[in-house]
C-alpha cells in the first residue's frame, strides 16, 4: 500500500508513482481490446477517424503504435470497483464507456477550440475535416451509452443514466469555458472558473469512480462519496496542471516556460490574480490585452500572477481539494488498505512531475 | 379506419390526411410536456439554445408560440405501441427520446451543412455561435439516452441500445452525405445514395417504430418488421421530398420552383439522372458544373432530369419502398384495422401535398 500526505519523502513518491503506473498499464491492457472491439462496430468512415484519434492508425489507415492517453479514467473505474469489494472484470465495459465519452469530448473540444495538435499529432478535424470529426464524436457518445445499455448487469441502467447526466455536465463546462473567453477577464469570477473546471474536468473523473462503485453494488451514499472523491481529485489535477502550464519545467513538459501565459489562457491561477484587486492584477490585465507576448512579457506576466497571489492560491486550493477528495474516499472506503490504489492514482495525476 | 392503395379517391386521401393530422396533433400534445420537462433539466446556457431550437423561445429567451416540427417520429412510436397491443402511455418517454435524437442531429447537421435557416427561422448556430449549438446538440443526445436509462421499464435497456445504434447509423448517413458532396457527381452511384438516404432518414423512422414495438412487449421478429416498415416508409418519404424539391408547387412548398436544382443538391432523382448514361446526364452534369443557375437553367436542368428518367425512377422507387413498408407492417401487424393509424401516418408523410 502507498501512503499520501503533505510531507512525503521522495522514496514514497517513487513508490506511489510506480504503483500508479502499474495500475494505469493494467487498466490500459484490459480496456484496449474492449475499446478496439467497440470501434470495430462503427461504419468504416467513422471507424477510420476514431482509430486515428485513439492513436491506433495513421491518417491513411496503416496501423500505428500509439497509445491514447494514460487510461486514467478506466483505471479509476476498475480501482473503484475493487476498492468497494466488486469484481473489476465486471466493470470493463463501464471503463470503456467512460473512455469513449472522454474521447468524444476531445474530438468536439478540438473543433470548438480550433486546437490543431493533440498528443503530439494533428487533431482529427485538421486531418479529416470538421464534418467527419464532428459526427465521429457523436458516434462515440452513442457507442458509450449503447455499450452500457447492451450489457445485462444490474448496474448498467443506473450507470448509463449517470454517464448521460455527466455528458450534460461536460457540455455545460465546455460551454462556460468558451463563454468566459468572450468576456472581459475581470468580469469572470474565480467561483465561476472553479465551477467550470469542476464540470469540464472533475465531473468525468467523479463519474468514473461512481460507475466503479455501482458495478461493485455500492449503495447511494457510497456512490455519491466516490463521485466526490474523483471530482475533487479532478479539480486538484486541473489546478496542478494550470500551475505546470505557467511554472512547469520545459524539459519535463515539452512546452516553453509560461506556454499558457503566451496563449493568453485564463487558467485558474491567472483568474485568481486578475480578480485579486491588486496592482499586479492591472499589470496582468494590461499584458493580456496585448495580441502578442514576447519572452520578457511572459516572464513579467508570471511574476505578476505570483505577486498577486495566484500561485499560492492555486497551490492551497489544490491541497484543499485533495483533502476533500481523501475525505470523500474515506467515507466510501474506510479501510485505507482497500483505498490504496485510488490514493496512488489520485496522487499520481495531481503530482504530474513526470 | 383509413385505407391505402395506389388508386385512391380524393375523398379517401382527405380522410387519411385528417386522421394523420389528428394523430400528429395528439402525439404533439402528449410528448411536448415531456420534452419541456426534459429540457428544463439542462443547465441554463444549453437550455436556452435548445428552447430556441425547438421554437419555444425567442433568441432573447421570451416565450415563442412556435411548434417544433410535425411530431412525426413521436407519433410513429405511439402508434406502433398501440398497433402491437401496448399502452402508448408507457412509450411517451421513448417518443420524447426519439424526438430529442432527431433534434440533436438537426443542430449538428445545420452546423456541418452551414444551413442558415430552419423552419423559417435562423438556425441555432447562426444565433448562438457554433460552440453553443454544438454542445447543446451533444447534450440533447445524452438527454435522449438518459431519459430511457432512467426509467424502469423492461423495454428501456433494449430501446436505449437500439436508439444508440441508430445514432451511429445517422452519423454514418450524414458523413456519407458530406463525402458525396466532395466527389464528382458521376462517381457517386445510385446505390450509395439510396443507402445514404436510408441511414440519414430511414433509420430514425424505423427506430421510432421499433421502439414503439419494444414498449408493447413485441418479440424480435415483430420489432425487426416494424423497423423495416418505418425505414422503408422513411425512404419513400425522402424520394417524394426530393421530387417536391424539383417539381413541387411553389405555392405549396413556399420555395421557388426547382429550389434543389438551383442549390446544386444531389438529390435522388438528380443522381438517378446523372448516372443514367444518357445524353441528358451529360447536359445535367454540365449545368451542375456552373456556379450559378438562372431560372432558365433550372428549367433546363429539371427537363434533363425528367428526360434522363430521374423523375420516373424516383416515383417508381417511392412506390416500391411504400410496398415494402406495407409488407413489413403486415408481418408485424396482420390485423389491418390495428395497422390503420400507421398506414395513415405513412401515407401522410409520403404524400406531402399539404
UniProtKB/TrEMBL annotation, chains A, B:
InterPro entries attached to this UniProt entry: Isoprenoid_synthase_dom_sf, Polyprenyl_synt, Polyprenyl_synt_CS
Alphabetical keyword list: Magnesium, Metal-binding, Transferase
Pfam families per the UniProt record, alphabetical: polyprenyl_synt (PF00348)
GO term, biological process aspect, one: isoprenoid biosynthetic process
Top-level lineage group: Bacteria
One of the record's GO molecular function terms: prenyltransferase activity
Coiled coil: none
NCBIfam families named in the record: f2_encap_cargo4
Homology family: Belongs to the FPP/GGPP synthase family.
Name of the protein: Polyprenyl synthetase
Species assigned in the record: Streptomyces roseolilacinus
Amino acid at each position: 500500500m502507498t501512503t499520501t500526505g503533505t510531507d512525503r519523502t521522495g522514496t514514497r513518491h517513487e513508490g506511489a508513482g510506480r504503483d500508479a503506473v502499474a495500475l494505469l498499464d493494467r487498466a490500459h491492457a484490459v480496456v484496449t481490446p474492449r475499446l478496439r472491439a467497440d470501434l470495430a462496430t462503427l461504419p468504416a468512415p467513422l471507424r477510420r477517424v476514431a482509430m486515428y484519434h485513439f492513436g491506433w492508425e495513421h491518417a491513411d489507415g496503416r496501423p500505428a503504435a500509439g497509445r491514447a492517453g494514460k487510461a486514467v479514467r478506466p483505471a479509476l473505474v476498475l480501482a473503484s470497483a475493487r476498492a468497494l469489494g466488486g469484481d473489476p472484470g465486471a466493470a470493463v465495459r463501464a471503463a470503456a464507456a467512460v473512455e469513449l465519452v472522454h474521447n468524444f469530448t476531445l474530438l468536439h473540444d478540438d473543433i470548438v477550440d480550433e486546437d490543431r495538435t493533440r498528443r503530439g499529432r494533428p487533431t482529427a478535424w485538421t486531418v479529416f475535416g470538421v464534418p467527419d470529426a464532428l459526427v465521429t464524436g457523436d458516434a462515440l457518445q452513442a457507442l458509450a451509452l449503447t455499450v452500457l445499455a447492451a450489457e445485462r448487469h444490474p448496474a448498467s441502467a443506473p450507470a448509463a443514466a449517470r454517464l448521460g447526466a455527466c455528458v450534460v455536465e461536460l457540455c455545460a463546462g465546455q460551454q462556460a469555458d468558451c463563454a468566459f473567453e468572450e468576456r472581459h477577464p475581470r468580469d469572470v469570477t474565480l467561483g465561476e472558473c472553479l465551477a467550470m473546471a469542476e464540470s469540464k474536468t472533475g465531473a468525468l473523473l467523479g463519474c468514473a469512480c461512481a460507475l466503479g462503485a455501482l458495478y461493485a453494488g455500492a449503495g447511494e451514499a457510497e456512490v455519491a462519496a466516490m463521485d466526490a472523491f474523483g471530482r475533487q481529485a479532478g479539480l486538484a489535477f486541473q489546478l496542478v496542471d494550470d500551475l505546470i502550464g505557467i511554472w512547469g519545467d520545459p524539459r519535463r513538459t515539452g512546452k516553453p516556460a509560461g506556454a499558457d501565459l503566451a496563449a493568453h489562457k485564463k487558467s485558474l491561477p491567472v483568474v485568481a490574480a486578475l480578480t485579486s484587486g491588486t496592482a499586479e492584477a492591472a499589470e496582468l490585465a494590461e499584458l493580456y490585452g496585448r495580441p502578442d507576448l514576447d519572452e520578457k512579457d511572459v516572464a513579467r506576466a508570471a511574476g505578476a500572477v505570483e505577486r498577486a497571489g495566484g500561485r499560492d492560491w492555486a497551490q492551497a486550493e489544490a491541497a484543499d481539494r485533495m483533502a476533500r477528495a481523501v475525505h470523500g474516499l474515506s467515507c466510501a472506503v474506510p479501510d485505507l488498505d482497500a483505498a490504496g490504489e485510488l490514493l496512488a492514482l489520485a496522487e499520481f495525476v495531481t503530482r504530474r512531475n513526470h
